[in-house]
Design goal:
By secondary structure, the protein is α/β, with parallel strands linked by helices. 40% of the residues lie in helices and 18% in strands. It has a seven-stranded parallel beta sheet, with helices on both faces. Strands 7-10 form a two-stranded parallel sheet. Strands 8-13 form a two-stranded parallel sheet.
Length: 299
Amino acid sequence: MTASNPKVLLLGSDGQVGWELQRTLSVISEVVNTTLSGQGGLPLDLLDRDAVAATVRQARPDFIINAAAHTAVDKAETEVDLSRRLNADAPELLGQLAAELGATVIHYSTDFVFSGDRDQPYKEEDETSPLSVYGQTKLEGEQRLLATGADALVLRTSWVYGNHGNNFMLTMMRLFREKGQLSVVDDQVGAPTWSRMIAEATAQIVHQLGMATDESAPPLGTYHLTAAGVTSWYGFATRILELMGDTCKLQPIPTAEYPTPAKRPAYSVLDNTKLKRTFGLQLPDWKDSLQQCMADRAS
């Protein structure tokens, strides 16, 4: 590996996190971007195992960063096979290829691997018990990737938002402009995490791993990577509304009044102590990140 300029193969570079990763990684590494459409990078369909293998072997990267996934939580309840192929089969294949080439895989997972039946932040080693197909397939992806024996880092994050793609923040901003009143669930608790913060933390991890010797390399495995602070979806929406200065009226409601195909955890706050202890990284409070994100959008 060229410590000062590792080669990164980025999968899903047109997604929320992938879009931000393109910029942050380009400062410290040579980046090969891939997207399903081929716009903004090489065309690559993760469902095509032969194409994935050929792309990885041709690129011969030092790092494979997988920012692609089936993230439509409710659709996954009926798209079980598609969800499993993207969220479980693909990470396992990437692990096998990384082991073959001596590369390191960085893969993103989710707070939805937990059931949410507690009231204190989840640590990496806590028991998992996903409530949805999305959570189940993401957990399976973690397990199958790590079982390949490849050098692999699983980064679990939560409630991802940003100025690109589809997410809660952008949906709320649109609805606030369209409606005079809106009801939002107030009994699901987590940590909204800006996609740029995830990308910047990932870039720092890549830099640290790229510069490390065999003796000084941080341990890989599973880490939690979320913003500091805690809120509900209603609290998240309230802060977005405040920053917009809109006049839409918000009404807090329980989950029971907003049924969805997929069941969500009531409490999915993640403990980030391990990430801070190992890599020296701590993401800002979600309120500060949201303010910066929305300011960037307005500028």
